[in-house]
Design goal:
Helices cover about 55% and strands about 10% of the residues. The protein has 2 domains: about 5-55 and about 255-405, no CATH class; about 55-250, P-loop containing nucleotide triphosphate hydrolases (Rossmann fold, 3-Layer(aba) Sandwich). The chain is of the alpha/beta class. The protein has helices at about 5-15, 25-55, 70-75, 125-130, 150-160, 170-185, 190-205, 225-235, 240-250, 255-265, 270-275, 290-305, 310-320, 325-330, 335, 340-345, 350-355, 360-365, 365-375, 375-405; strands at about 55-60, 100, 110-115, 140-145, 165-170, 215, 280, 290. The chain has a 6-stranded mixed β-sheet, with helices on both faces. The protein has a two-stranded antiparallel ribbon with strand order 7-8. Helix 2 (about 25-55) crosses helix 19 (about 365-375) and helix 12 packs parallel to helix 20.
């Protein structure tokens, strides 16, 4: 059978969708359907959705006082220092315990501010045990100048324990501004490369010959290596952890919105399965039926992950230094308020669903799941409505980001 480019892309998508499940789980889905039908399979999918919602991501940030840890933690959560829940900036470090800061919309994502190690004689191994290193998925080692002896000791100990770590050089904008005051005219790219080369050389001498160094400004996260750092962290996580990390990224660019879209798209079939496994509720105006609570709950979840809820829009407006009303003016009105069946009807998401055949649907779905549920009306209805809703929400989020940061 020949597939169009659209179907080829969908097949690629389905391969990544199934990565949320082990081979054993995929086999069990098929077996459960053969023995118990949709209802039995629905139980496994419901448990998987619950497990995904409970997935935790814990990121440790270690650096001396004054290196910009708090500003970095705020930037990773899309916050300014005066936003509610922001880490305090500019205070003298006195705590001896890790301090956790949850993501404003995804509380299972936490950034941990680790206190300094103390003197150079302090044991890195003892420090990591005291900091309960096993709970962290990876470590950010941050400095606003040269990485010091304690930084190197800690990195070596983290490496021995088999954990990931990343060297981050902060406040790079301050370095460039200082150079401009001294030299009047500088080549920014050349100066950045000098800083990077010198830092990499020193780390190689300290025993890290292949280390990457990310040069960032937490006050200007759209500049320098901030995007590359986030992409590097994302690529080193497994599929489940990667999912929550991407959804927790602040909307700083259209490219980030697109990555969120691709991630959320992989969840749609699970919501549809839950709808198909439960009793269908007729909806006036639809020729098919779906479970309304699941449908609306999924759309609200999409909106929050794409930073289109009121609180997220206000944070974005604060960061962009624009009136929040200017950002909201680019969004379709029904998306800003309560998501209801009337709102879904007004946006036309249901119309698309009833015009798509089950045959077309099974071509762009996970092979083992598609063969089971392809003809289910409630399942098919929910799937197509959520696909249309997610596309609409993503387009709105892209417009908001473009207005906020003046990008094309």
């Amino acid at each position: 059978m020949a597939f169009s480019s659209h179907n080829s892309g969908s097949i690629k998508e389905t391969a990544s969708v199934s990565s949320f499940f082990t081979q054993e789980e995929r086999s069990k889905i098929k077996s459960d359907f053969d023995t118990g039908g949709v209802v039995k399979v629905q139980q496994l999918i419901e448990q998987k959705v619950t497990d995904l919602d409970k997935t935790e991501l814990n990121i440790a940030v270690r650096g001396e006082s004054g290196t910009g840890k708090s500003t970095f933690i705020n930037a990773m959560r899309g916050l300014r220092s005066d936003d509610p829940g922001a880490a305090e900036v500019g205070t003298t470090e006195t705590t001896k315990k890790p301090t956790g800061y949850s993501h404003p919309t995804l509380p299972n994502v936490r950034y941990w501010d680790l206190p300094g190690m103390g003197t150079t004689e302090f044991s890195a191994a003892k420090y990591l045990r005291k900091m309960k290193f096993k709970q962290y998925d990876f470590f950010i080692i941050i400095s606003n100048c040269r990485f010091k002896e304690n930084d190197v000791k800690l990195a070596k100990e983290i490496e021995q324990w088999g954990k990931k770590f990343y060297f981050v050089r902060s406040k790079i904008d301050d370095d460039l501004n200082s150079m401009k005051k001294q030299k009047k005219v500088i080549n920014g790219e050349e100066e950045l490369e000098k800083i990077r080369s010198d830092t990499v050389r020193r780390l190689a001498q300290a025993g890290f010959p292949e280390s990457s160094v990310f040069l960032i400004s937490s006050l200007e996260p759209s500049e320098f290596d901030f995007t590359q750092l986030n992409k590097g962290l994302e690529d080193d996580l497994n599929n489940v952890k990667k999912r929550i990390f991407v959804l927790a990224l602040p909307n700083l660019s259209v490219e980030i919105v697109q990555r969120k879209y691709e991630t959320l798209k992989k969840h749609i079939w699970m919501f549809a399965t839950l709808s198909g496994g439960m009793g269908a509720v007729p909806v006036p105006g639809f020729s098919l039926a779906c479970d309304i609570s699941i449908l609306i709950g999924a759309i609200v979840h999409f909106r929050k992950c794409l930073d289109l809820d009121d609180a997220s829009l206000q944070r974005l407006a604060n960061r962009a230094e624009k009136p929040v009303e200017e950002l909201k003016a680019t969004i379709k009105a029904p998306l800003l308020g309560e998501i209801t069946i009337d709102a879904i009807l007004r946006l036309g998401w249901g119309t698309l669903a009833v015009t798509v055949s089950a045959v077309e649907f099974t071509l762009d779905f996970v092979p083992v799941i598609g063969s089971i549920f392809g003809a289910g009306t409630s399942f098919l209805m929910t799937y197509k409505i959520l696909r249309a809703a997610l596309k609409d929400l993503t387009e709105n989020a892209e417009r908001v980001v473009s207005i906020a940061f003046k990008t094309d």
